[in-house]
Design brief:
The protein has about 425 residues and is an alpha+beta fold. About 35% of the residues lie in helices and about 20% in strands. This is Thiolase.
Amino acid sequence: MDRINQLVSHLTPGSVKGLEAIQTKSPDDVVITLAVRTPLCKARKGGLKDTTSEELLVEIFKQAIAHSSIDAGLIGDIAVGTCLPKKPLHEARSAMLAAGIPEHVPVQIINRFCSSGLMAVTDISNKIKVGQIDIGLAVGIESMSQNPDDPWTPNSVAVNNHPPAKACCMPMGWTSENVAGDFGVSREDMDALSALSFQRAEHAQKSGYFKNEIVPITVNFKAADGTITQKTISADDGIRYGTTKEALGKIKAAFPQWTPSQTTGGNASQVTDGAAAVLLMKRSKAEALGLKILGKHVATAVTGLAPRIMGIAPRIAIPMVLTQVGISQDDVDLFEINEAFSSMYVYCTRELGLDINKVNVNGGAVALGHPLGCTGARQVATGLNELARRDGKILVTSMCIGGGQGAAAVFVRD
């Protein structure tokens, strides 16, 4: 708690705080008028396996503009959160132009690993708050089918001789095992929450809960015989129907070289392709344009921590952002916490004492997948959509970040 108080002390003073305050509507609120995502598809196997990150960007830009009800020329800036493409700025700039966005609209890339989509939303929100732009588009995107698999190996003697620095370069599976081992997270609990993720995602998909957040996209698809056809993708394809804790318990450890060797292909986030888009502006601008307001972005908090246990970051970041806005966990209707690994998901929900009936109610990354740069924006689309369905008000999103960081944000539905 001292760590949290220390960090919060550096936040902007004098902000209006409290549940009533953040729900009060102001012309200066930074509101969201669009929050959509593509289907999330299994990397190298699913519906987007033959779609490059450039092509995926073109599609999400087209869909964002088509569903935004605004002239694309009104966008003051675009922020694209992404992690691994080799030429991210070239891809983003060329893709936005190919999608029909005018050349006077600028674009930038933001990369804070798994939080990149949320950082894009936060960057655009901050620019609107200070009056730098009137309207901005935040995008999160990752084609993990196209991304390199090789982990980064440091060459610097200074890094290699500094254990925390070297830990930044270790595979994320190692960090998952560290969390399980250091904090007494059992394999049984990991498999139980993972099974729940699949079961909730299956129920949500069958019940049509995702239909208002998913925009179908048309992409190239290579068949087994090598022929390429166009295919419209409209649903997530990584959800494994009928998953049980018992079935997950039979899967072998993915990382037997690291103790306690409890992380498996069934209780960790899926390697996935996908994109999401969030359109933001001041409430006064949205009202002037006659746009429906979905909600508003209230605050984002970011923290650093030991890289070897990066998964516990939501345990730090969530209390930070709640303190920042002056509300408690009990005030929150829904939490979207990225299920990077079920070891960190079990730990964070347990240590925060969260009501599991409020967390990842339609499944999380174990069932839906974790396209790295997409997730932070995807959570906004999923969370606001579910708040509307439940007539809830307060959403908190959060994730751990490779290299030893974490982030969390608060949104209020209109």
